[in-house]
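General statements about sequence and structure are easier to judge against a single worked case. For one protein, we set the task of working out the structure tokens from the amino acid sequence alone. The sequence in question and its structure tokens are set out directly beneath this paragraph.
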Amino acid sequence: MPITKKRFEEIVKKLKRKGEIVPATYDCIFKAIMKKCPKYRADLTSRLTGIPKKLILNTYKEMNTEYVIDNVLERGKVSDILFAVKGYVLNYEFNNRKWDGLIERNDAYLGKVKNDLIRRTKSYASLPKVIQININNFYCFLSKENLLEFKSRDKYGIIESDKWGKIYVNLKLIREKYDRGLK
């Protein structure tokens, strides 16, 4: 769960007194960087997905991060970053800490994006590819990989559809490798 605005303001004051900067591991900082730094956003997205940087810079279109509520019991769902480029829709989720239900919540966000596209697209064949990028500041899976890519496959490894996928970035592991390299 995200920290409260009051708690965040306390953290910022404490860091300022020490002469330190607010880390990009906070949602609001991550969102600000991704929204206000198009070249960084394009570079990061290109490196993670293989989508050409030029395509991202030239066809970027910000999308509404608030999803349609489907029933009375459903609470509002809001993604961190959601944008389209030609042939793709990209959803970034920055997860600062692990909690029960996190993966299911992010799955729900991915499902909302796919359902919205199906409602608005004229044919299934012309659906853009949806990629959710989860940047985790913790160990999420028992893996020593910095990047993990998930797709729907059968037991023989045959991919069901290439129209969606998930990428997990393990910041904790990257930081440890970086720190070890400095010593």
User: Anything to note?
Assistant: The chain has six helices and six strands. The longest strand covers residues 88-95.
